[in-house]
Amino acid sequence: MALVLNSEAQLVRDSALEFFADKSPVLMLRKLRDSRDADGFSRPLWREMADLGWTGFLVPEAHGGSEFGMVGLGQVLEAAGRTLAATPLLSTALIAASAIDLAGNEAQKQKYFPGLVSGDSIFALALEEGAHHNPNRIATTAKRDGDGFVLDGAKRFVIDGHVANQLIVVARTSGGQNDRNGITLFMVPADAAGVAITRSAMIDSRNAARVTLAGVRVGADAVLGRIDGGADPLEAVLDRARAGLAAEMLGSSSEAFERTVQYLKDRKQFGVAIGSFQALKHRAAQMFCEVEVTRSAVTAALAALDENANDASLLASLAKAKASDTAYLTGNEGVQMHGGIGMTDEHEIGFFMKRARVAQAMFGDAAFHRDRYAALTGY
Amino acid sequence: MAALDIFRAETRVWLEANCPASMRTPMPTDEGSSGGLRAEYKNPETKLWLDRMSAKGWTTPTWPAEYGGGGLGKDEAMVLEEEMRAIGCRSPLSGMGISMLGPVLLEYGTEAQRVEHLPAIIKGEIRWCQGYSEPGAGSDLAGLQTRAVLQGDHYLVNGHKIWTSNAHLSDKIFCLVRTDPAAKKHEGISFLLIDMAWEGVRARPITLISGYSVFCETFLENVRVPAGNLVGENNKGWTIAKRLLEHERKGIGGIGAPGAPTADKPVYVIAKDAVGEVDGKIADPALRNQISVQLMNTHAFQLTRRRAAEASEAGQPPGPMSAMFKYYATELNKTRYEAVLAAGGDQMLGWEGDEYDPNHLRNTREWLRSKANTIEGGTSEVQLNIIAKRVLGLPD
Ligand SMILES: Cc1cc2nc3c(=O)[nH]c(=O)nc-3n(C[C@H](O)[C@H](O)[C@H](O)COP(=O)(O)OP(=O)(O)OC[C@H]3O[C@@H](n4cnc5c(N)ncnc54)[C@H](O)[C@@H]3O)c2cc1C
């Protein structure tokens, strides 16, 4: 497992950093928010990302992708995190591409990959039902109905839910509410009869939605993977999502940290730069260490996922836990060290703290992943 | 076969034939080999292993062969390390000679100094200690007061060093002394090599909170030090002093690395034994969480160490990452022993006696020892100062 980027990944990283700095600075998110943009992201920009090949990084070459992998996509997500860019990279290029690739059959791949790679289709994973991430706790039901199924249930925190063309719904086909067995994944068109989607307005001004399914009929061809056997591919998809999100969070944390250090040099009080105060210096130095250590965990997780390494799940949990703790630290310290200006909406540092808080909770917070790390290690 | 593969094959054969069986087991803390005239070898194979390795120069694999070092390139040294790790070889020699003074003599010493000191360090014949700190000069090391006055062909040295690790077991001491009291404090310091057996040198052991006596007060009273024992230039010792500290901190930054001596069992096993388990989980969720935080931070830090090593192999400059190693490794090591103590409960609170498992007693003493990690070699606060200044560029 390499922890240092090869030249190809470095190239992707450099061009992604340039792309987001240039075309999607934090100001872009502010504009989307203030104009109450219906999509919550820029479709023309999404098209450009597709043209750069980023939507196809996890898609097999036979289906128009590049199979460039998680390390590559992680570089793009990290760069997007630096400017808090609102994009469907996570929901579509990462989660949907992985779900279809890992669980889908040939017909499904042929059906969904072209639109995914071209940027025409947006996908959303409809998983969560409670206030905390819990991928096994599924009450949404899918009952047999002739050849097909009927789905009923309520989902929340569905990333990009209201702009998606396709939902990937996690439903229960058998078993009790907390059983790993009996979970099945379904491809459900967002405009299917009985699907109701309402956008959630979250603190990070990014896309999320509630989805209710009331007597939604789908055919047998909607089943993604094995009936009752959805938990395993779902876990593999979630591990990629955790590592990818951790990469995004690493980007946001690095940016918030660097901006804060710059502010410590610029802002003067008592006739000197506030960065000369040791109380702030030490906390800045500690943040530096945490960002560096987080970078190592994130890079290791991305690489392990590409290699299907035995410890990929362990590393994904490590990366998400560290990224969550570090995002919490850099977000909160960022606001505190900016003083009053940090509390204003006009200043951008608060955007980082708000995004951090949502990303922390997404796909398992630090406590969730510490518990999982312990379980995977055997204690 | 490529040259490196041949080297690997030969090294493997040699290690297999020459590394004694007991030297392939984890090292108990009291069997470390630091060499020196006063060394006592509890296990005779420790000495045998030292002699065999030093004959090949492999106690210092990358030092030049002309002084008795291994003369290996970086790649070969890495192979040697890998092959030693593969069969669990103990390090044959440790100490301030090989980790701190030697590299500095290679960089700043005269040819005569290298010829005199390096072979003895490599063979483990002479043990060195470090005379930096004084009662009035710790973090503010450059405030040191030990005086050295040049009198013809020798310096006359008077002063009081403290916290001198293992001075009572060492043969020689490298000392920072003030040679120009009128100059600015960083500009009047020199670096001298002194023999502990010379008249006027006296070391008095100090008992630590762990009950062990690993450091001393060292008194220097009218000690006559030949002028040839000055390393570098007169009054220019501070540069050398700082370089040596970099080597020291790099060494301490390796603490808690895989293979370093640890508790006898994984900490979560200690916890399960002590509080029981429910569905395979440690029964106490707060303790379980504490252990996860510790193990996960350790894991992420080990990956950071590896990332730095890979970056340096790839020819990238060490970058700002290395600045954090001393700080992070030592803070982490303290949390490691805190977790062990938390897991063990009152079994880990024993001082001595048959009532307690010897492994537990050792853990407890190591817990006390670990508190020094964030003080010795420059405190954590000083490391944070360095990161803030040198890496982040924050103003004084
Ligand atoms: C086990 C052990 C072995 C040692 N071995 C050796 C040895 O072999 N040779 C040798 O020369 N020395 C040795 N030392 C000494 C060690 O280097 C010093 O203890 C250390 O540099 C701190 O100095 P001090 O003890 O005077 O503490 P002080 O400098 O008095 O520090 C006290 C507290 O003040 C803080 N502080 C001081 N200055 C600042 C600052 N500028 N900003 C913020 N906080 C600050 C410190 O971080 C610390 O918390 C050893 C120490 C220990 C514990």
Classified by CATH, the class of the largest domain in chain B is: Mainly Alpha
The CATH class of the largest domain in chain A: Mainly Alpha
Q: Sheet bearing the most strands of chain B, described?
A: 4 strands, mixed
CATH architecture of the largest domain in chain B: Up-down Bundle
Average pLDDT metric of chain B? 93
**CATH fold-level assignment of the largest domain in chain A:** Butyryl-CoA Dehydrogenase, subunit A, domain 3
Total tally of structural domains of chain B: 3
Gyration radius over CA of chain B: 22 Å
Strand order of the largest sheet of chain A: 1-4-5-8
CATH architecture title of the largest domain in chain A: Up-down Bundle
Quick one: which chains have the greatest interface? Answer: A-B, 38 and 45 residues
Strand content of chain A: 15-25%
Q: Bin the helical content of chain B.
A: 40-55%
Radius of gyration of chain A: 21 Å
Number of E-type strands of chain B: 10
List keywords for this structure.
heterodimer; A: 379 residues; alpha+beta; Butyryl-Coa Dehydrogenase, subunit A, domain 1; Butyryl-CoA Dehydrogenase, subunit A, domain 2; Butyryl-CoA Dehydrogenase, subunit A, domain 3; B: 396 residues; 3 domains; four-stranded antiparallel β-sheet; 11 helices; binds flavin-adenine dinucleotide
Describe the structure.
The complex is a heterodimer of chains A (379) and B (396). With 379 residues, chain A is α+β, with helices and mostly antiparallel strands. Chain A has three domains: 7-122, Acyl-CoA dehydrogenase/oxidase, N-terminal domain (Butyryl-Coa Dehydrogenase, subunit A, domain 1, Orthogonal Bundle); 125-228, Butyryl-CoA Dehydrogenase, subunit A, domain 2 (Beta Barrel), CATH 2.40.110.10; 232-376, Butyryl-CoA Dehydrogenase, subunit A, domain 3. Chain A has eleven helices and ten strands. In chain A, a hairpin with a 2-residue loop joins strand 2 (141-145) and strand 3. Chain B has three domains: 3-94, no CATH class; 128-237, Butyryl-CoA Dehydrogenase, subunit A, domain 2 (Beta Barrel), CATH 2.40.110; 253-391, Butyryl-CoA Dehydrogenase, subunit A, domain 3. Helix content of chain B is 42%, strand content 15%. Chain B contains eleven helices and ten strands. The model of chain B has no long low-confidence stretch (mean pLDDT 93). The chains are: A alpha+beta (379), B alpha+beta (396). The A-B interface holds A 2-4, 261, 264-265, 272-273, 275-276, 278, 281-282, 284-286, 288-289, 292-297, 299-300, 318, 321-322, 367, 370-371, 373-375, 377-379 and B 268-269, 271-272, 277, 280-282, 288-289, 291-293, 295-297, 299-301, 303-304, 306-307, 310-311, 314, 316, 320-321, 324, 327-328, 381, 383-385, 387-389, 391-396. Bound molecules: flavin-adenine dinucleotide. Flavin-adenine dinucleotide (FAD) binds next to strand 1, strand 3 and helix 11 of chain B.
